[in-house]
Amino acid sequence: MLDIKWVRDNPDALDGALKARGAEPAAAQLISLDDQRKAHIAKLQDAQTRRNAASKDIGKAKASGDDGAAQKLIDEIAELKAFVQSGEDESRRLDAALHDALAGIPNIPLEDVPVGADEAANEEVRKIGEPRQMDDAKEHFDIGEALGLMDFETAAKLAGSRFVILKGQLARLERALGQFMLDLHTGEHGYTEVVPPLLVRDDILFGTAQLPKFAEDQFRTTDDRWLIPTAEVPLTNLVREEIIEASELPLRVTALTPCFRSEAGSAGADTRGMLRQHQFSKVELVSITKPDESLAEHERMTECAEEVLKRLGLAYRVVVLSTGDMGFGARKTYDIEVWLPGQKAYREISSCSVCGDFQARRMNARYRPADGGGPQFVHTLNGSGVAVGRALIAVMETYQNEDGSVTVPDCLKPYTGGLERIG
Question: What's the rounded Cα separation, in Å, for the pair 324 and 122?
Answer without folding.
Answer: 9
